[in-house]
Design goal:
The complex is a heterodimer. Chain A has two domains: about 80 residues, no CATH class; about 70 residues. Chain A is built from nine helices and no strands. Chain A is globular. In chain A, helix 8 runs antiparallel to helix 9. In chain A, about 65% of the residues lie in helices and about 0% in strands. By secondary structure, chain B is mainly α. Chain B has one domain. Chain B is globular, with a radius of gyration of 18 Å. Classes of the chains: A mainly alpha, B mainly alpha. Chain B: It holds the Pfam family DUF6691. Chain B: Keywords: Membrane, Transmembrane, Transmembrane helix. Chain A: It is found in: Cell inner membrane. Chain A: It holds the Pfam family Sulf_transp. Chain A: Belongs to the TsuA/YedE (TC 9.B.102) family.
Chain lengths: ~190, ~140
């Protein structure tokens, strides 16, 4: 039973993610999550105003079904497969986060300080999540893919453009984690 | 129906794996960018390695897809600016809210309702790109 509740190892998890990508290739599709955001914009009728969203999103319905499945998977994993021993991150990281006012995980996937319902009382906290989302949506569409489309699918197919995108992901991530995040949280 | 079920199942496994590996965790992303754990690097590396081997097997053996058609994986468009600049924006967001598009949906499914704000932002960001596309260097 331990295997259900404990954190899954990087090698098992990585292997399964690779298989998920290969399964979608076998189904004649491709692995990419951020393109669903474009489909959702198109579904909302934005194609009438902006040509980029004027495409046949119905051909991408299969990917929205993948998203629905992922949401169900997240629900099951969090509600029936979790344990207080989870998210056992580096103690140095916990110490460092404490200085930024971020609570320790203690089994939680996300910090209350950033994602708890009480943040709804703080315009700054709402703004952080909103801006983070805007950067993710804008950046992934500009780069033509996110972690799934470029880092996993693209690099698996030895695509140089994907390598450039992944280098961009990491430069941006390092700038945020090391320089901007401490300024934002203090 | 069977057609839909296979996508639902793939998504379901994806949601479970990303949650159980804690790749959906803000903490894991922060820890990764601080170089304080190998966990996330291990996940990404093994996923890519599995993918490289799988794609090479498909290409060399000319394996057909589920419908019996040959598998064509299109190359990404050539270029640099869009990948590096777009990637940079994405990375800033990824490290700030600790989730990329897949985890945004997975966390929402798990009931982390404040992630709705992130999703709304991501849709706004996607819309902004659509609006500005012709003016941006690609």
């Amino acid at each position: 039973m331990d295997i259900i509740f404990q954190t899954w190892s990087w090698y098992v998890s990585g292997f399964l993610i690779g298989l998920i990508m290969l399964a979608l290739i076998y189904f004649g599709k491709s692995f990419g999550m951020s393109s669903n955001l474009r489909s959702l914009c198109s579904m909302a009728g934005l194609g009438k105003r902006v040509a980029f969203f004027d495409f046949d999103w119905k051909a991408q319905r299969w990917n929205l079904v993948v998203v629905l499945g992922a949401m169900l998977g997240g629900f099951v994993a969090v509600h029936f497969m979790s344990d207080a021993s989870n998210v056992n991150i580096n103690p140095d990281t916990i110490e460092q986060l404490a200085t930024l006012g971020i609570d320790a995980p203690n089994g939680k996937l996300v910090p209350d300080a950033l994602f708890g319902m009480s943040i709804l009382e703080s315009p700054k906290s709402i703004f952080i999540l909103l801006i983070g989302g805007v950067l993710i949506g804008f950046g992934s569409r500009y780069a033509g893919g996110c972690t799934s489309g470029h880092a996993i699918s693209g690099l698996s197919n030895l695509q140089i453009p994907s390598l450039k995108a992944v280098i961009g992901f990491f430069i941006g991530g390092l700038i945020m984690a090391h320089f901007l995040l401490p300024l934002i949280l203090n | 129906m069977k057609n839909i079920l296979k996508y639902l199942l793939v998504g379901f496994v994806f949601g479970i794996v990303l949650t159980k590996s804690e790749a959906v965790s803000w903490y894991r992303i922060y820890e990764m960018f601080q170089f304080q754990s190998f966990h996330m690097y291990g996940i990404i590396s093994v996923a890519i390695l599995t993918g490289i081997i799988g794609i090479q097997i498909i290409k060399r053996n000319n394996i057909k897809d589920i419908k019996g058609e040959s598998i064509e994986i299109p190359d990404k468009e050539k270029g640099s600016a869009r990948y590096v600049i777009g990637g940079l924006f994405f990375g800033l967001g990824w490290a700030l809210v600790g989730s990329c598009p897949g985890p945004i949906f997975i966390l929402l499914g798990a009931g982390f309702w404040t992630v709705l704000i992130v999703l709304f932002g991501a849709l706004v960001g996607t819309y902004l790109y659509g609006l500005l596309k012709s003016k941006l260097p690609h």
